[in-house]
Amino acid sequence: MAGVREISLGAVLRYALVAGLAAGLVAAVFHLVITEPVIDQAITLEESLSSAEAAHEEAIVSRDGQRIGLVVGFLLYGLTWGLIVALVYHAAQRWLPASSAAMKGLALALAGYWALALLPFLKYPANPPGVGDPETIAQRQMLYLLFLAASAVSVGVAVTVGRLAGRGPANWVVTLGTLAALGVALYLAAPAYSDPIRMPMQLVADFRMRSLAGLSLFWIVLGLILALLLRQPATGQRLSRPHTAPA
């Protein structure tokens, strides 16, 4: 039986960190150009809705400082998820439902996008400044983090159930079906935010659309670059031979 090429932890760490850093930089540039104008509109509107005294309070961090923080934050975000993806890939590469290292990396990035970006966003979409009661921030953050954790666990459950169905197309069908069913169950079971929205819905919708586009761009870039790097020749790979009983 032919051996299975496995990527060493050091190699996959390098690949995933480069992919995460590139994805964070692309997402940061996207938000600077596309999303920041909507945030400026939301801040102006929030100030106009506030009292005259509150409207003239000096911000703790200037808008230029916030933009710098956005870039730094996305770079750290990319490095963090790159590290997590590398560790998960190395631990689970034998069980990922794909036939090559590149496709395994792409499949893992797509799973991350679904569980850590798209599904949580559909349930708890991002809001511009001025939306939400400041007194409920802790509660909303806790709901989001719990949903994020449950969504990540659902991916592991779906992959495990898919493996029980065997290899080939049946694996993919069962895995994706289980993932969809668990996603719907989580979406319906999780409580919704109850804070009123005082901003115009068009502004809120514009911000949410651009936020989702930035999230999607981040995971697409991470997955594609990781897959391209994993296609490199056998550097950082070792041959794992199947266990056989002694003669």
Instruction: Count the E strands.
Output: 2
The total tally of domains equals: 1
Proportion of residues in extended strands: under 5%
Multimerization status: single chain
What's the shape? globular
Regions with little confidence, pLDDT below 50 for 5+ residues: 52-56, 238-247
Head-to-tail CA distance between termini: 16 Å
Radius of gyration using CA atoms only:
21 Å
Structural class: mainly alpha
Q: Please, how many helices?
A: 7
Task: Give a topology summary.
Elements: E1 4-7, H1 9-49, H2 52-55, H3 63-92, H4 101-123, H5 137-164, H6 169-189, H7 201-230, E2 237-240
Antiparallel strand pairs: 1-2
Helix pairs in contact: 1-3, 1-7, 4-5, 4-7, 5-6
How would you explain this protein's 3D organization?
This protein has 247 residues and is mostly helical. It has one domain. The chain has seven helices and two strands. It has helices at residues 9-49, 52-55, 63-92, 101-123, 137-164, 169-189, 201-230, and strands at residues 4-7, 237-240. A two-stranded antiparallel sheet has the order 1-2. Mean pLDDT is 84; it is low at 52-56 and 238-247.
